[in-house]
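Sample entry (137 residues):
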Amino acid sequence: MARYEFDGIDQLMAQLDADANSVMERAERGLYRGGEILADALREEAAATFKEPTGELAGKVKADRTIKRTVSSRSIEVYARGTYKGKRGSARRAATVAFVVEYGRRNDMSANPWNRRANEKTGDAIGEAIHEEMFGK
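Predicted structure, serialized as tokens:
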């Protein structure tokens, strides 16, 4: 009967675990940077899009500071948070107002895809930010 022996497996496993944790930390820093880039672009697009900008909706756009984790992925959300009063004065969820502006309403308001335009403008910059965090410049 053959016998195989390997010395140092514990150190190797510890090093592999440390490397995996380091990669995830860098990826999460990249997510934060990408989220801030997208939030800035959304604020700029909101200011350029709305007919009579009060700046209220643009000021509500923020990147989440909590990472959503699944087994195989990580993500953060970037959207308008809080309440929005606007010109009407009645409080509504800022996320709902942003959604209606993006997709419009059935008859009285056409879609104005400000969110989509900001996403398209920042795709490369977000990818570069994540790449820099993962691999350096």
